[in-house]
Amino acid sequence: MSINIFKKDDQANGNFNNGEILEKKPIGFPQDRGKLKPYSNLFYWAHARAPLTDSIIGLHPHRGFEICSFVLKGEIEHYDTLLDKWIKLSKGDVQIIKAGKGISHSEKLKKGSEIFQIWFDPNIQESLYIDASYSDFKSKDFKIRSINNIESKIVQSNENQLSLQSTGIEIYEHKFKNGVHQLKVKNQCYHSYFILNGTLEINNQQFSQGDFLKIDNEDNLELVTKNNVRVFEILSLIRPPYKTYAEIHKII
Q1: Contact, 111 vs 50, CB < 8 A?
Q2: DSSP codes, the chain
Q3: Chain-centroid distance, C-alpha 148
Q4: Chain center to CA of 171
Q5: What angle do CA 223, 227, 232 make, to 5 degrees?
Q6: Integer angstrom CA distances of residue 129 from 61, 97, 122, 178
Q7: Which of 6, 20, 108, 155 could make a disulfide contact with 171, Cβ separation 3.0–4.6 Å?
Q8: Cα 26 versus chain centre, distance
Q9: First and final CA of the chain: distance in angstroms?
Q10: For 186-210, how does the pLDDT look when each residue is reduced to its tens digit (9 = 90+)?
Q11: What is the dihedral of CA 167, 170, 171, 172, to 10 degrees?
Q12: Distance between CA 72 and CA 90 in Å, rounded?
């Protein structure tokens, strides 16, 4: 059994514009000195929010990675040098930047908004040589599946709705009815859970909003859920079929 726990208070912190945008980082950059290093083809994961005012993260460059923003609450606007215009995204929407040879972008978080920004590694040794691209997806584009008192929004699966090049990535948002649930852990995969709402209990240990779990080597997992639990889940391969950026640069 392997359940690695990263409580909200133990995650790396970040901010922009003198605290107008605040961040908690389950997976931060090396300089953030967080407890959790990049793993699988998950390189970076930040939960950003603008609690008091609109605020802009200025134009900055990216190369190679797939930069994904998931709007959890409120509304954001996005600008990049490929499309050369501002695009509005609302709660439940997703944007994908395949940075390729290089692209610069800027984001405006509206007051009260929250997002995940997650960087996936699509094989950096290949992606650095392709043209950059941008896609956005509306909340209504994603399928909803209900099984055994769990409602799951399917953001990325084997059907590959987001067309990610990062191998083996699956992304879900789950809503649990209060009670006991049995979940199967997929072989040879990490299950990364960020708790969005409610109280979740595993092995008599409680977790709440903002806590992060990295789970593998489990056949089945029993969860006890209270207070309308919502969980954002990413599945990723324990061993992707290529060397990741973190492996190449020895930051794992």
Answers
A1: yes
A2: -EEEEE-GGGSEEEEETTTTEEEEEEE--GGGT-S---BTTEEEEEEEE-SSS-EEEEEEEE-SSEEEEEEEESEEEEEETTT-SEEEEETT-EEEEE-TT-EEEEEEEPTT-EEEEEEE-S-HHHHTTS--EEEEE-GGGSEEEEETTEEEEEEESTT-TT---STT-EEEEEEE-SEEEEEEPPTTEEEEEEEEEEEEEETTEEE-TT-EEEEES-SEEEEEEEEEEEEEEEEEESS-SS--HHHHTT--
A3: 25
A4: 8
A5: 60
A6: 16, 15, 12, 48
A7: 155
A8: 9
A9: 21
A10: 889 999 999 999 999 998 899 999 9
A11: 180
A12: 8
Specify the amino acid at residue 192. Answer: S
Largest CA distance in the chain: 51
Assigned token pair, 110: 């509206």
């990675």: which residue's tokens? 65
Task: Provide the whole-model pTM.
Answer: 0.95
Query: Cα separation of 236 and 245, whole Å?
Result: 15
Q: How far apart are CA 103 and CA 20, in angstroms?
A: 25
Beta carbons of 210 and 137 less than 8 angstroms apart? no
Contact 164, 212 (CB under 8 A): no
- The string of pLDDT tens digits covering residues 139-179 is 998 999 999 999 999 999 987 688 899 999 999 999 999 99
Q: Which two tokens stand for residue 63?
A: 């190369």
The whole-angstrom separation of Cα 51 and Cα 212 is 21
